[in-house]
């Protein structure tokens, strides 16, 4: 779909690409207020897990799990948050957010209050992506 921001994201933000799996794309979220915040989104424009057949659904969840596990190994968070909302962007996508007891919004949801975005400088962004890619290869 041309009007869907998730359908365009992989193509429009190549500097944030982490990996392409069989069923999903993985990108670093530009705002790194929450260190390691990563997006995993389906290649196909679907809005719900139940729109996928059982085999594909299982494979998608395994891809999400692989990314969450890699983020956990890199950042060692207190808790990994998995957000699958789609209210504002109706394309199946997960916000994987490593959370720490010392983050400013702990233990509240990341959406509980606005914050100033914290984009990484280009080199720091490339380094973070490199770390995640390496963790996914292990």
From TrEMBL:
Gene Ontology biological process terms in this record: nucleotide metabolic process
A Pfam family that the UniProt record links to this protein: HIT
UniProt cross-references to PROSITE patterns, sorted A to Z: HIT_2
Signal peptide as annotated in the record: none
Residue interval(s) of motif Histidine triad motif: 91-95
UniProt-recorded Gene Ontology molecular function terms: catalytic activity
Residue ranges occupied by any HIT domain in the UniProt entry: 5-106
InterPro entries named in the record: Histidine_triad_HIT, HIT-like, HIT-like_sf, HIT_Hint
Coiled coil regions in record: none
Top-level lineage group: Bacteria
Name assigned to this protein: HIT family protein
